[in-house]
Amino acid sequence: MPKVIYHHEDGATETVAADAGSNVMRAAVQNGVAGIVGECGGQAMCATCHVYVREAHLDSLPEIGEDEEEMLDCTAAPRDERRSRLGCQLTLGGDLEEVEVDVPATQI
Q1: Which of 21, 32, 88, 102 could form a disulfide with 52 if both were Cys (CB 3.0 to 4.6 A apart)?
Q2: Considering only CA atoms, which of 78, 85, 67, 80 is closest in space to residue 25?
């Protein structure tokens, strides 16, 4: 079962097990992880599921699509050109059985 580890700015860490085919945003929302809003429900239209993927997992990520690229320019927290992704675009399972992400201080 895929696993997501969310690191918060205060040093707290939450680990969530999720179904394959789910995504980083959905796993957070379904498990009450603070700091991930998912306002649009996973349509890459709001950027409220912005996360910073930890370096060790960057090679396992899918390419950034045009919609995601556009929304990453609209995040409330500063964009990191290497590590910023929308959680709704990171499907769990396959090459992404485990991922660690840093949750930005703000999403809105």
Answers
A1: 102
A2: 85
Instruction: Please tell me the predicted confidence (pLDDT) of residue 94.
Output: 93
Query: Distance between CA atoms of 99 and 108, rounded to whole angstroms?
Result: 23
Distance CA 13, CA 70 (A): 29
- The conformation of residue 26, written as its DSSP 8-state character, comes to H
- In angstroms, the Cα distances linking 24 to 62, 87, 103 are 13, 5, 11
- Sheet arrangement for strand 13-17: 13-17, 3-7, 98-102, 50-53, 84-86
pLDDT means per 10 residues, the chain with 108 residues, are 97 97 97 96 94 97 95 96 97 96 96
What pLDDT does residue 21 have?
97
